[in-house]
Design brief:
Number of helices: 12
Strand content: 15-25%
Helix content: 25-40%
Shape: globular
Largest sheet: 9 strands, mixed
Oligomer: single chain
CATH class of the largest domain: Alpha Beta
CATH superfamily of the largest domain: P-loop containing nucleotide triphosphate hydrolases
């Protein structure tokens, strides 16, 4: 079992940029509690810039969550009372003004969606996000409140922190991440109607300190119900990546999803045909288990690009289950290269002049 000494040793590896020392030796770690694998403590940061506070929170949360025996980490941001002198009061910087825009520092917002569940949408969303890191800074929002799988796939146990009444996203594999799965128990089911989902997505945008990002990827729920309508109205989407398998049942449902996004005037970046074929690891023979060329037919039908054809790969499934996506676990593998090509194709579509600007929806 993890103990306080192990936690403090892990935290001693985190140094404060503006000071000569680590957060433990500088006395910044307060109220440390370790009980049944659950670790909570406060970072007493009061004089550091906001960017430093956020970075220290993410580093501390990540360092402790990687310890054996830790099941949950909660890091609070606190600070000592400011000096009572008039000079100190006069020189204290005013809190930054809140922007009326949801995510003004995010360049591109990408939704990964599907018409039905079970087509590998979350796997595609997570690996696409990882692959996009080669082209800029990335965040990912697990918008699938009914099946929040992103924390498991990214191997994170941390809970988001709070600072000045805003949420600090969890950091995983060099990306910022938020999910309802970080806030509820693994066995706790969310029975939410549309207005609650609408409110949750608004909070993920307005109340989370995303900062400057080149790409923010949204793992959307499958289907075309009230949840999808609310999400599409709230999120200022640059475009949608539709994920499907080649089989006719999946294609039938994804046509409905495409129709929904078209009615909402959301640009279609293209189609990803997942589980396109299976290559036998023993003889190398390829089998189209779920049908052949369904994604290509769909793309031609709607006049949008077929962004990628991803084979059914057991190691990709194992990597997701173990919290290390295939794009990180085996970056030189054929599957990881395929996700890299998908990221390049998405960026090309985002930069294409053919994509019309989105209307603002209040």
């Amino acid at each position: 079992m993890v103990d306080q000494k192990a936690v403090l040793d892990a935290l001693r590896t985190i140094r404060v940029p503006e000071a000569q020392g680590d957060i433990v030796s500088l006395g910044l770690v307060r109220d440390l509690s370790v009980e049944d694998g659950q670790v909570t403590f406060t970072l007493a940061v009061s004089n550091q810039p906001v960017a430093t506070k956020v970075a220290l929170h993410s580093q501390a949360s990540r360092a402790v969550s990687q310890l054996d025996g830790v099941s949950k980490v909660q890091v609070k941001l606190g600070g000592a009372a400011p000096p009572a002198s008039a000079h100190a009061h006069a020189s204290a910087p005013a809190p930054p003004a809140r922007s009326p825009e949801f995510i003004p520092e995010v360049r591109h917002t990408i939704a990964v969606s599907s018409g039905k569940g079970g087509v590998g949408k979350s796997t595609v969303a997570v690996n696409l996000a990882v692959a996009l890191r080669a082209h800029g800074s990335v965040g990912i929002v697990d918008s699938d409140v009914y099946g929040p799988d992103v924390p498991l796939m990214l191997g994170t146990k941390s809970r988001p922190g709070m600072f000045e009444n805003r949420i600090i996203p969890v950091e995983a594999h060099g990306m910022k991440m938020m999910s309802i799965g970080l806030l509820v128990g693994e066995r706790e089911a969310l029975v939410w109607r549309g207005p609650m989902i609408h409110s949750f997505i608004q909070q993920m945008l307005k109340d989370v300190m995303w900062g400057a990002l080149d790409f923010l990827v949204f793992d959307m729920p499958p289907g075309t119900g009230d949840a999808q309508l609310s999400l599409s109205q709230v999120i200022p989407l640059s475009g949608v990546v539709m994920v499907t398998t080649p089989q006719d049942v999946a294609l039938l449902d994804v046509r409905k999803a495409i129709g929904m996004f078209q009615r909402l005037n959301v640009p279609m970046l293209g189609v990803v045909e997942n589980m396109s074929e299976f290559a036998c690891p023993h003889c190398g023979q390829r089998t189209a288990i779920f049908g052949d060329a369904g994604g290509k037919k769909l793309a031609e039908e709607y006049g949008i690009p077929l962004l990628a054809r991803l084979p059914l790969d057991p190691e990709t499934r194992v990597a997701g289950d173990e919290g290390a996506p295939i794009t990180i676990r085996r970056p030189e593998s054929a599957q990881a290269r395929a996700f890299g090509e998908l990221a390049a194709a998405v960026i090309e579509r985002l930069e294409s002049a053919a994509l019309p600007p989105l209307p603002k929806i209040s």
